[in-house]
Amino acid sequence: MGMTMVEKILAAHAGKDKVRPGELVNAKLDLVLGNDVTTPVAVKEFKKIGIENVFDKERIAIVPDHFVPNKDINSAEQVKMIREFAEEKEIKNFFELGEMGIEHCLLPEKGLVVPGDIVIGADSHTCTYGALGALATGIGSTDMAAGMATGEAWFKVPETIKFVYKGELQKWVSGKDLILYTIGDIGVDGALYKAMEFTGPVIENLSMDNRFTMSNMAIEAGGKCGLIEADEITLEYVKGRAQREWTVYKSDEDAEYSQVIEYDVTNIEPQVAFPHLPENTRGISEVGDIKIDQSVIGSCTNGRIEDLRVAAEILKGKKKAKHVRLIIFPGTQEIYKQAMKEGLIEIFIDAGAAVSTPTCGPCLGGHMGILAKGERSIATTNRNFVGRMGHPESEVYLSNPAVAAASAIAGKIVSPEEVL
Amino acid sequence: MEIKGKVWKYGNDVDTDVIIPARYLNTSDPKKLAEHCMEDIDDTFAANVEQGDIIVAEDNFGCGSSREHAPISIKAAGVSAVIANSFARIFFRNAINIGLPILECPEAVVGIDKGDEVEIDVDSGVIKNITKGTEFQAEPFPAFMQEIIDAGGLVNYVKAKAN
Ligand code: SF4
Fold first, then answer.
1. Strand runs (DSSP E) across A41-128, as ranges?
2. DSSP state of B68
3. CATH among 3.40.50.360, 3.30.499.10, 3.40.366.10, 3.30.300.30 for A272-418
4. A127 Cβ partners below 8 Å, 6+ apart?
5. What are the φ/ψ torsions at residue A172 (nearest 5 degrees)?
6. pLDDT tens across A155-210, in order?
7. If contacts are CB pairs under 8 Å, which of residues 88-147 in chain B contact chain A?
8. Burial zone of A216 (CB within 10 Å; 0-12 exposed, 13-18 middle, 19+ buried)
């Protein structure tokens, strides 16, 4: 019996020839990540362990991105604390404002994650790096502290569900729609404790940015991780960025899966997830008349250059509806700069958008785009839980960047076709 | 470890954003976090929860973010244990790591109502509904996790191994 990609990565990092689902292993870590919300708690716990130095100064990444530029005094104190910790422990990859970005856009861009890695991050969307063929998973602050101290973490080897995507992608249908459709199908706990593996001819032709979007939302199905086998598209992205050697792991032909689920994407239209769970998905033609107050384009799900290009394609030469606030936040400084070079930022501003410096901002209801009671936002983010973007009685609808841009123009949730 | 308290009951998919909304994450002080625990799902909780109370919920408790602030706020609010049909993976890990007892037991979830008086023996996994006079058996933890729990959480466990 063969092994899945995840089993192979875990076995290699645990110094074993073979592992089986259910087995508990102690594995070596290639990178440990934290942000401005989770690292302060980790620093406190790290100090309690009583080990002087971190396991490897080059293999820890700390990215203040949630409440930056510091939104209030408390946030400033939190960032100050982790900055001082990074200085004291000589942590190389501390990303100060102005050099940073949303952590899950930034780390792959900087070549800090490569195929075959095991990465733990004190942020649930760490699973994004599965798109590189790495085992990346979210953990909490205490795990981050222990990881920084020892360079190891315990894992239960997960079962894997294989998803096979076949058929023809329709216009305006992206990785976001595939993953929303999948979550709509299996539910927010459909992959609980499990690894998801995204495969098939559609994935093989999908761009890196779209792959990141898919892996990013594995957690929204309860998954431990969401992997895509590294291929030429992956290596094209990794070359020139990678700061380390990489290893490509492929699932064996006879690997054992807990489930194999096949989708024909030909009939999938752009998806919208209704409040208050990402599983409440509908095709855009079934949405009905939903007026919006805000449209948010960005985040670790859809804040990459291709996402901005799609949004610009729709917004070019048009104006957002008068009553709508359109907020666009590129994922990193590099993406921001690229968007400037390509003239996208000008298109956004001409369309009436507020373009923000990279930050998590409104995605988690932090700042820069909070909703009042009863307000509605369409967003390219990944969660539409109660209160996620502001008041507990506000609503978030999740979509791809094309739908979010089109909806900003129409003032209600519509298909891109309706504004072109 | 023996636990006894009154039950707060919730449904499916109680996510970390309702357990502790992000707008309060600009602090990591457990006491301040506890003041807003469960606020967006039940605004009577934080003011009325008593030391030792128990949360009982259905599927996928703690889904969403990795914020350890979620189990920290529950623990700091005085809650002594959470019983659910299932827990989201990161929440499960975080709860073990910080020493908040959690138990998976679908039969108990069905057999316990809001306000019931419940007693739990964490080591054996026996859950007693005192109000209704019924008893349930939760899944025991794997030995390795029990070691972390016995050490009083992951930090103590790592500390003991390092020295
Ligand atoms: S953009 Fe949103 S989902 Fe992504 S890391 Fe930031 S808060 Fe989390």
1. 60-63, 93-94, 118-121
2. T
3. 3.30.499.10
4. A136, A137, A138, A215, A216, A218, A219, A223, A224, A225, A226
5. 70, 5
6. 999 999 999 999 999 999 999 999 999 999 999 999 999 999 999 999 999 999 99
7. 88-90, 93-94, 97-98, 142, 144
8. buried
Nearby residues of A64 by Cβ (< 8 Å), 6 or more positions away: A35, A36, A78, A79, A82, A83, A95, A96, A97, A100
Best mutation target, B27, B33, B90, to test chain A (most A CBs within 10 A) = B90
Min Cα distance B100 → chain A (Å) is: 13
Looking at chain A, how many residues does it have?
420
Question: How confident is the model over A229-254, as pLDDT tens digits?
Answer: 999 999 999 999 999 999 999 999 99
Q: DSSP for A286-315?
A: G----B-SEEEEEHHHH-SHHHHHHHHHHH
Strand ranges (E), A172-212: 195-199
Q: How wide is the angle at C-alpha A30 spanned by C-alphas A239 and B60, nearest 5°?
A: 110
Q: Are A415 and A286 in contact (CB under 8 A)?
A: no
* Structural domain boundaries, residue B52: 2-162
pTM of the full predicted structure? 0.96
Query: Tokens representing B66?
Result: 């990795």
Q: Are A328 and A354 in contact (CB under 8 A)?
A: yes
Ligand 1 centroid – CA A364 distance (Å): 7
Q: Which residue of B has its CA nearest to A49?
A: B159
The domain made up of A5-262 has a fold known as Aconitase; domain 3 (3.30.499)
